[in-house]
Amino acid sequence: MTTTSLDYYGIEELLTDEERAARDRARLFVQEEVLSEIVPCHRAAKFPEHLTPRMGALGFYAPYLKEDGCAGVSYTAYGLIMQELERADSGLRSLASVQGALVIQAIHSFGSSEQHARWLPGLVSGERVGCFALTEHGHGSDPGGMETYATRNGDRYILNGSKCWIGNASIADVKVVWAKDDDGRISGFVVEKDAPGFRARDIEGKFSLRMSRTSECWFENCRIPAENRLPNASGLKAPLSCLLYARTGIAWGVIGAAIDCYETALAYAKSREQFGRPIAGFQLVQQKLVWMAQEITKAQLLALRLTRLMETGAARPAQISLAKRNNVWMSLQCARKARDILGATGITDSHSVIRHLMNLESVTTYEGTHDIHTLIIGRDITGLNAFGG
Ligand code: TGC
Ligand code: FAD
Questions:
Q1: In whole angstroms, what is the distance from residue 4 CA to residue 175 CA?
Q2: Across-strand partners of 14?
Q3: According to the model, what pLDDT value does residue 211 have?
Q4: What backbone phi and psi angles, to 5 degrees, belong to 198?
């Protein structure tokens, strides 16, 4: 197994054998089982569903958890797995983020031991699909304003409200839904497949993350058993704490997309001739390639330091925001510069770059927009809240 060709500062030496093995397993999976599927699936706007259990069998969901049948590798190994998945397509990494860092994580953190036994094995193996429903039509960046309510009625909860932009909501067997309880407190509820009063519709016409299924859904007197409430989730901090794991995976994942863009642009620039010589020999083209190599290297060091901090329990939420914000921005700029170097051919899916570019437009918005992370970091360093309200 070759190491990544862009390792300008010798990151390889800073990894353990276990971390290299986890990365190489993910890379081999992508090369042998995924790459040939991507363009047709992207064109058809459909996810290769058979990969969901396959990724479970490989231990890709919440692999940093040491319990509940998860792989129990380091946060850095988790990041490297996400990097290899997103090198192929952000939609592949998104599946792992939602299933692992959001759904499995929420049940793991806030569920009872009975709930762990009931839902986690199928989610960890990928035999059952999960979704994490926080965002609503009227509440994206401000989930605290949510208008979905769960009212206790005997041995049931009755849910009313709606959610939007939810990955896999229309097919999910296990839906972690965030709603306000009778006291107005944000709580977590598991809505299982075929719950009466639940309906969903996939969002069509996406130009970004086309391989992912993204849905809106409605709860109309949706009845679920009272024991489906996650007993230890109380307040907005419960869903926000799950986002920390997913944002960490994104900070690593987008490096994979950036490396793929850089390597594609570098190879093209060396082979494409204009004015009698390879375009890689022009100073302006080199400037773009150097910018990409420089920023990817900085992003790698940032992501590695972040997961090393997580491994000692020392990472703060604002540090995770900084890594998500910087690395997604970096990756988007790399995709734009690579697209430019490819000239006209860069607008077609004969190369992966335009697909990464379109995907990254979602990644910069979800899990907290670029500007929301600016405000989280701004609040951390100034002590002043600039969110409004
Ligand atoms: P705020 O007052 O700041 O916080 C409310 C309570 O939560 C605590 N808290 C956190 N706890 C754990 N982890 C964090 N990251 C936390 N951030 C805040 C905080 O201490 C407080 O606790 P307490 O005990 O005092 O109640 O709340 P706010 O309403 O001012 O909101 C602030 C803001 C903007 C930071 C937050 O709402 C936010 O992050 N907004 C962005 C929304 C977002 O990221 N949504 C993601 C939806 S899921 C998704 O996009 C999946 S896509 C995945 C994929 O496909 O890969
Ligand atoms: P808004 O919050 O309306 O923001 C619009 C603009 O206003 C942004 O530029 C934002 O930065 C800016 N803005 C908002 N507030 C402020 C402020 N205080 N100061 C300055 N600027 C501000 N959610 C889930 O719960 N589960 C999922 O599985 C999920 N998957 C997704 C998949 C995709 C493909 C996408 C695109 C989104 C997904 N989301 C999911 C939703 C995602 O988390 C939200 O889109 C995101 O939080 C932003 O919310 P919004 O789209 O409503 O934008």
A1: 36
A2: none
A3: 97
A4: -105, 135
Specify whether 23 is located in the same domain as 137.
no
Dist. CA 175–CA 219, nearest whole Å: 12
Coil, strand or helix: which one is 224? strand
pTM of structure: 0.98
What is the whole-number distance in angstroms between the Cα of residue 317 and the centre of ligand 1?
Answer: 10
Residue 58 Ramachandran class (φ > 0 left, ψ -120 to 50 alpha, else beta): alpha
| Residues whose CB falls within 8 Å of the CB of residue 260, separated by 6 or more in sequence, listed in order | 87, 88, 352, 353, 356
Active-site residue among 19, 136, 216, 367?
A: 367
CB 263 within 8 A of CB 359: no
**Strand-strand pairing, 273-274 and 277-278:** antiparallel
Judged against a pLDDT cut of 60, whether residue 39 lies above it is answered with yes
Ligand 1: residue of 236, 241, 361 to mutate (most ligand atoms within 8 A of CB) is 236
> Model confidence over 168-183: pLDDT tens digits?
999 999 999 999 999 9
DSSP 203: P
Ligand 2 site, residue 101, Cβ cutoff 6 A: no
Q: Is 67 helix (H, G, I), strand (E, B) or coil?
A: coil
Non-local (6+) Cβ contacts of 41 within 8 A are: 47, 48, 211
Our answer on whether the CB atom of 178 is closer than 6 Å to any ligand 2 atom is no
User: What confidence score (pLDDT) does residue 388 get?
Assistant: 79
Domain end call among 209, 228, 247 = 228
Same domain, 242 and 175: no
Can you read off the two tokens belonging to residue 82?
């996400």
Sign for the CA dihedral angle at 83, 88, 89, 94 comes to negative
Sign of CA dihedral 356, 359, 361, 367: negative
At 303-322, the pLDDT tens digits run 999 999 999 999 999 999 99
Residue with tokens 């762990």: 116
What's at 282, amino acid-wise?
F
12 in catalytic set = no
| Residue 1 in domain | no
In this structure, what CATH number is given to the domain that contains residue 307? Answer: 1.20.140.10
